[in-house]
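Hi everyone, sorry if this is the wrong subforum. Our group has a chain we'd like a structural model of before ordering constructs, and none of us has done structure prediction before. Sequence below.
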Amino acid sequence: MRLGYVRGTVVLSVAAPALRGSKLLVVEPVTMENLAARNGKGGGKSLVVASQLSPAQGQLIGISEGREAANPYHPKDTPVDAYCALIVDTYDI
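Answer:
Right subforum, don't worry. Here is the predicted structure as tokens:
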């Protein structure tokens, strides 16, 4: 799992039926240096993340990637490579 900041959303005119009710987010993963500095900067390469939690822009989230990202949609075969597993409230380093 990685942490990242929500930078925006993706809007589709046509989506896979299995993604109904999900929101697609543009997320910038955060580096350890920026996380420790608590400066709100990411530093990683942005990716598209599916979410059913609907975090706001600028919020820090936990990202599950790979095959595990599609588990919340089981038993549907959903084309998801990254999923918003949690919204970070506080953290300590």
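For your construct planning: The chain has one domain: 2-87. The longest helix spans residues 32-37.
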